[in-house]
Design a protein that fits this description.
The chain has helices spanning 33-45, 97-106, 170-173, 198-205, 213-226, 252-261, 279-285, 315-333; strands spanning 6-11, 23-30, 50-53, 59-61, 66-73, 78-82, 86-92, 131-132, 135-136, 141-148, 153-158, 178-188, 249-250, 267-269, 275-277, 293-294, 297-299, 307-309, 342-344. By secondary structure, it is of the alpha+beta class. The protein has 3 domains: 6-73, Uridine Diphospho-n-acetylenolpyruvylglucosamine Reductase, domain 2 (2-Layer Sandwich); 78-226, Uridine Diphospho-n-acetylenolpyruvylglucosamine Reductase, domain 3, CATH 3.30.465.10; 249-344, Alpha-Beta Complex (Uridine Diphospho-n-acetylenolpyruvylglucosamine Reductase, domain 1). Strand 10 (141-148) and strand 11 (153-158) form a beta hairpin. The chain binds flavin-adenine dinucleotide.
């Protein structure tokens, strides 16, 4: 167990994939649950806000930095229970998500293979119900153990209690309440089901009639690389937070209104009857093209939904460009895009 240590004025840009923004006023690397409690007590004694950081792959940090205490979740540990059919893994928050997926696939277990290549740490996955290629962590998540910041006690939430929705959860809606400490996933020894995502189905069909979990992982990684959606030190689009905007979900009437004047509008009907639109399509049809640049920031050359930092830039530049894109989509379609990354150190009205 490493000693609890709070440092001051710690640069956050190198701890995020966008590599933008200023310093944390106070910074702690929490390698166990007790460190998280100590950090909360420290912040409370000084009446400072707390911000939890995982791998920094879904945040945009303000140039002014983040006031208060930034707690970086760095606890490591995996335990495993195998009943012959299913295998339950309990992972601590600081474990790498994609290492877990790679190991599970290596053991031939199914359930998370389509979520291959997503950066970040396990503790962040329930926050926005991480998802890709037709799956989301809500499909395999059994429970979340979190620290309740109010009571300083640990609480366990079932999948239903996490209230997962598209890129959303109870944790995301109550950002100042819980710190995720451990997450349990139930994976299966049975063969993977047919992927639900058309692009993945097509790519897999070219590879194998009966794809294994390893085939699915490799195919997903190939697709993701082609869109700069894996972290690759040699990729000029590497400094991003993945998709910068959520796919908007609108009413059936709203989707019909837009479709009546825009041929080819991609529409995905949701269980509740509403319709998910493709933010990347809306952005491109609003005149924002892949590779477009504004100073040190721009749109990825491989994906219209990813905003990238080309180095030497400021968070404010990225935010300005994001506002420009949002205004273009709003004016063309009457749809308001919502950012996917969490904005740290900004006013609530920043975007
Ligand atoms: C190239 C690229 C591709 C991506 N592709 C996808 C994708 O396909 N699908 C997808 O869903 N996301 C994707 N993302 C976004 C991101 O990787 C995920 O959201 C990931 O789960 C974030 O993990 P993180 O550890 O980096 O979290 P961070 O960015 O550090 O934090 C994100 C949020 O979670 C909170 N948080 C983090 N850890 C905890 C904790 N232990 N307890 C409480 N709150 C916590 C933070 O306060 C913050 O609000 C992508 C990002 C990049 C850069």
């Amino acid at each position: 167990m490493s000693a609890f240590c709070i440092t001051e004025n710690v640069a956050l840009a190198p701890r995020t994939t966008l590599e933008l923004g200023g310093n944390a006023e106070h910074f702690v690397e929490a390698t166990d649950d007790a460190h998280v409690v100590e950090a909360i007590r420290f912040a409370e004694a000084k009446r400072l806000p707390i911000t939890v950081l995982g791998g920094g792959s879904n945040v945009l940090v303000s140039d002014r930095g983040v006031r208060g205490v930034v707690v970086a979740m760095r606890s490591r540990g995996v335990s495993k229970k195998d009943d012959g059919h299913n295998v339950c893994f309990e992972l601590t928050a600081g474990e790498s998500w994609d290492d877990f997926v790679a190991n599970a696939v290596g053991e031939g277990l199914s359930g998370v293979e389509t979520l291959s290549g997503i950066p970040g740490l396990v503790g962040a996955t329930p926050i926005q119900n991480v998802g890709a290629y037709g799956s989301e962590i809500a499909d395999t998540l059994e429970r979340v153990t979190a620290l309740d910041r109010l009571t300083k006690s640990t609480v366990t939430f079932s999948r239903a209690e996490c209230e997962f929705r598209y890129r959303d959860s109870m944790f995301k809606r109550t950002p100042d309440r819980y710190v995720v400490l451990r997450v349990t996933f139930r994976l299966s020894r049975t063969k993977p089901g047919a992927p639900r995502y058309a692009e993945l189905q097509r790519a897999l069909a070219a590879r194998s009639a009966t794809p294994s979990v390893a085939d699915i992982r490799e195919t997903v990684l190939t697709l993701r690389r082609s869109k700069s959606m894996v972290i690759d030190a040699n990729d000029p689009n590497r400094r991003s937070a993945g998709s910068f905007f959520l796919n908007p979900i609108v009413s059936k009437q709203e989707a019909a209104r837009i479709a009546s004047t825009h041929d080819g509008l991609p529409q995905f009907e949701q269980e509740d009857g509403r319709v998910k639109l493709a933010a990347a399509w809306l952005i491109e049809k609003s005149g924002i093209t892949k590779g477009m640049r504004r100073g040190h920031v721009g749109v990825s050359t491989n994906h219209a939904l990813a905003l990238v930092h080309h180095g030497g830039g400021r968070a404010e530049e990225l935010l300005l460009f994001a506002r420009e894109i949002r205004a273009a989509v709003q004016s063309r379609f009457g749809v308001t895009l919502v950012p996917e990354p969490v904005l740290l150190g900004f006013d609530s009205s920043a975007l």
